[in-house]
Amino acid sequence: MEDKRNIQIIEWEHLDKKKFYVFGVAMTMMIRVSVYPFTLIRTRLQVQKGRSLYHGTFDAFIKILRADGVTGLYRGFLVNTFTLISGQCYVTTYELTRKFVADYSQSNTVKSLVAGGSASLVAQSITVPIDVVSQHLMMQRKGEKMGRFQVRGNPEGQGVVAFGQTKDIIRQILRADGLRGFYRGYVASLLTYIPNSAVWWPFYHFYAGVSGQVILQITETAASHMACGPCLFLVPTDIY
């Protein structure tokens, strides 16, 4: 549908669901692969005591690469990829909630506000437990213990062993904290992402409308000047 300002609004029923999910996951995965090593490095730098192990981002990158190879930069990556589900759930929840709210209000602001908050609630409920396990796996390294939990046996294992490490970490979290251990920081995440998402989407539609008006005004102004023809070349002599 289009509103009075000729701004096209894409709703859930307009999406090609098959392409949306396939391309969405593929694009997110490519981005995740490229930035994950820096996420791991950031996490380790935040957890270490002072500069006991790494002296900075570049130093951490070199030391991890030398000690564990490229795979060392991707500890916990396989588990972390499950957060792709939360991304798809976020968008699905957002669009379906907008469609539901549309039965009660046609205001884009109201629809976006409710849908944005609901989408973040669902996404964070899925993301936080996965992040907790993934971050504990990021802390696994040869030598000095960095995190609360240490994988037993072979912490530098690769390939299929990574899922063995995941099971070990999950068991240790359950023994230490119970199910609540998988939701450490959950409330803080909700307080961060729900307001952010709830406010961002209404502003997105607002600025889309404003941008549409500006573009329309520029187009109309340009058209009027084009219609003027030779007058564009008339320059007042008094400005010199």
Description:
With 240 residues, this protein is an all-alpha fold. The chain has a single domain, classed as Alpha/alpha barrel (Mitochondrial carrier fold), CATH 1.50.40.10. Helices cover 65% and strands 0% of the residues. The protein has 7 helices and no strands. The chain has helices at residues 17-47, 57-68, 77-80, 83-101, 108-138, 161-177, 186-228. α5 (108-138) packs across α6 (161-177) and α5 packs across α7. It is found in: Membrane. Pfam families: Mito_carr. Belongs to the mitochondrial carrier (TC 2.A.29) family. The chain crosses the membrane at residues 20-41. Its main location: membrane.
User: Could you give the distance between the termini?
Assistant: 51 Å
User: What is the CATH architecture descriptor?
Assistant: Alpha/alpha barrel
Provide the number of structural domains. Answer: 1
Could you say which structural class the secondary elements and strand pairing correspond to? mainly alpha
Helix/strand order = HHHHHHH
Tally of individual helices: 7
Shape: elongated
Radius of gyration: 25 Å
Q: Which regions contain 5 or more consecutive residues with pLDDT less than 50?
A: 1-5, 155-161, 218-240
List the quaternary state of the chains: single chain
Overall mean pLDDT stands at 78
The CATH topology name reads Mitochondrial carrier fold
State the CATH class.
Mainly Alpha
